[in-house]
Amino acid sequence: MPAFESLVDLCRLAEYSTVAGTDLVLRLSRTSQSVALIEAIESGGWDTTLRVDSVVFVERPDRLAEWCSFELIVHGMARTNEVVANNVVMVLRYNFGSFLGRPPSKYYLLQERYASWEVSHHSDVQAYQRALRVLKLMRRLADVVREREQSAEEAIFLTTRKRSMPLVYDSSVLSSVASDGEIDRFEAVVFDEHHRAARLDIAKRVLGRFFDTVAEDDRFADLLKRLPQASQAVLADFDLFASGFSFDKAREEFERKKLDFLVKINAAGSDAMNKLIAIPIGQGLLASQMKVDAAYIFINWTLLSASAIFAVISAMLLASYVLTLRQVGTELGAEKRLLEERAPPTYGQLKPMISELERRIRLHVWGVPI
Length: 370
Hints:
By secondary structure, the chain is of the alpha+beta class.
């Protein structure tokens, strides 16, 4: 068995294990299995020290009594290709962030009891693997990738102006890293072969817009958390590109729709007023026909019934009027959200016009609590 795999088996066999500085400290019992594993790692070039009751034991481990408890110290845990660490946090800090961008070829995590050639079920390990996937995508997307001290690398994006994203993060972000499905979606949206050049340019511009106000060293960590929003923004901008969207056309189209909304508001008001204006006249005529003589009580009740019918018709007309205005308001809200999502600059220019329309609708509806 290779030496590092033997070291991993020895860690799993140990009653206690930890990495202290550049030393791996294991507490074991003398068995034929532990002796064989120690011999295997020593033959692989690992330097060890064996202690019994805090005293260095200079003889071979098979000289120990069966089931004798001892401490094994494996020196030189600062290798760059085979690493044993206490946990994922220590891997990220290892040698000033050497493994932020690329994991060691082989590594073992004591607390998670995870070896790199196994399938992991530990959340921190899975998050680390997802962060590496996102980092790899940024390497593909960047125009220039260069080495940078105390970080994996630095990605440079050249769009309207140069933007830098150091590919650095820490353990605090692992709980918020985007899921595998979200990473798959981002990769599909950005690196699809259909209009690939346009997609890449749009993705760079979206990242520039997202992180323009974010501190440089926080950008990649922020991206790990906001990758779903970045995918959505890239897809929305690509839809605009694919449909030949024009901001000027959007403005002209919305101004035409503004006239349609005004026509609908005025039509609803005029129709309601034309119908409601006749009801007070009818009510007045009914009231003028009522008699005080008891002999006409049946006629009076008939006139009261007709008046009640007029009142119900009035309520129905008011309800129809208000519901029509609310429908117009709903259509206006949908158009507003669509414009805000697809063309933020144009939405900013048209916002006063939209607000005026919303106020006009509220004014017409005000006082009719339906």
